[in-house]
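Support request from a user on the community tier.

User writes: "When I paste my structure tokens into the form, the page sometimes reloads and wipes my input. The last time it worked, I copied everything first. Here is what I submitted, just in case something in the input itself triggers the reload:"
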């Protein structure tokens, strides 16, 4: 049982180390690749270009948008279905996802929310465009609005990136990453219990009872003291880990997530991410959650094993089953 427990414990540590160490990198990939922020500048610039091409068909340059004049002639028309399709494709590629994240009730921080508002304005103007040939007097206003919003989004990219990086480099994330380097030390922990078990075997082999009982010896007592000391060291450290694990598993409702809107508790925030953004969850948190659960189960098994050792030791000391058998053999002889 002890050997199996040690094996599962080592496996749990090995499984937990990578997702903890890689948490900042996974968060970065989650935001910039899964949430498409890597494409924000490129696709917004592309919208700018398409809007400029559409305006050019009506003889307008973006600089004129601030003081837009009526087209000459007034009934001038243009066909901009290809430009509209290209803009819609940019939204499908990344801007819709970015808009959703920037509007999120927890992740939509103020600088990101401003970008979301510009994207919403842009999309509203795009929806108002006709796929057929349309009068320039109407399309000019819409494409000017699209171009202006696209410029504002491009200008906000650096600010958006800084806000995302603050979330990725938060103190909570740094603490989790730092703890990953200390996990290797926990590989030693089970062997403290192994040494304790060997000392207990010494007690069982030498006397079959504790030193304070009849038949106990000083050597058996020394084995017993070392057994108790090593057991206590292991039990205290393991209990601390169990306490931390239980706090994370069952006390998430008491921990606020820093750096996001609304001050949600950890359990509420994680449930929101898992249900609303399953691809992000799979990239960043799925492996970490599984590894933490396995680690908690491993240390919990050791906690139960420690209590079994105490119960067995007390029974051996109080009932002295092995000593009584030895005495019976002596009488028979």
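"...and here is what came back when it finally went through:"
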């Amino acid at each position: 049982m002890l050997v199996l427990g040690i094996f599962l414990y080592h496996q749990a540590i090995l499984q937990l180390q990578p997702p903890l160490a890689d948490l900042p990198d996974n968060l970065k990939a989650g935001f910039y690749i899964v949430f498409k922020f890597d494409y924000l500048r490129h696709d917004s610039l592309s919208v700018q270009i398409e809007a400029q091409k559409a305006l050019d068909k009506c003889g307008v340059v973006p600089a004129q948008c601030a003081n837009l004049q009526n087209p000459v002639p007034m009934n001038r028309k243009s066909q901009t279905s290809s430009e509209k399709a290209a803009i819609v494709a940019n939204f499908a590629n990344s801007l819709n996802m970015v808009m959703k994240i920037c509007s999120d009730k927890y992740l939509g921080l103020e600088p990101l929310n401003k970008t979301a508002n510009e994207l919403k304005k842009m999309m509203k103007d795009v929806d108002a465009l006709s796929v057929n040939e349309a009068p320039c007097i109407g399309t000019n206003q819409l494409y000017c609005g699209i171009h202006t919003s696209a410029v504002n989004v491009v200008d906000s990219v650096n600010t958006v990136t800084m806000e995302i990086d603050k979330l990725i480099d938060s103190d909570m994330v740094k603490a989790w990453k730092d703890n990953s380097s200390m996990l290797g030390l926990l590989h030693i922990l089970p062997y403290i219990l192994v040494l304790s078990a060997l000392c207990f075997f010494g007690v069982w082999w030498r006397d079959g009872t504790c030193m304070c009982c009849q038949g106990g010896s000083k050597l058996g007592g020394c084995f017993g003291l070392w057994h108790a000391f090593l057991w206590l060291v292991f039990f205290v450290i393991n209990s601390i880990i169990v306490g931390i694990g239980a706090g994370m598993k069952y006390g998430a409702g008491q921990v606020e997530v820093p750096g996001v809107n609304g001050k949600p508790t950890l359990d509420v925030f994680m449930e929101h991410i898992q249900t609303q953004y399953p691809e992000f969850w799979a990239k960043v948190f799925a492996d970490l959650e599984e590894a933490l659960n396995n680690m908690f189960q491993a240390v919990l098994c050791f906690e139960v094993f420690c209590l079994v050792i105490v119960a067995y030791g007390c029974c051996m000391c109080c009932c002295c089953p092995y000593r009584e058998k030895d005495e019976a053999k002596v009488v028979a002889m």
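Agent notes: The reload is a front-end session timeout and is unrelated to the input. Confidence is low (pLDDT under 50) at residues 324-333. Residues 67 and 331 are 116 Å apart (CA to CA). Escalated to web team.
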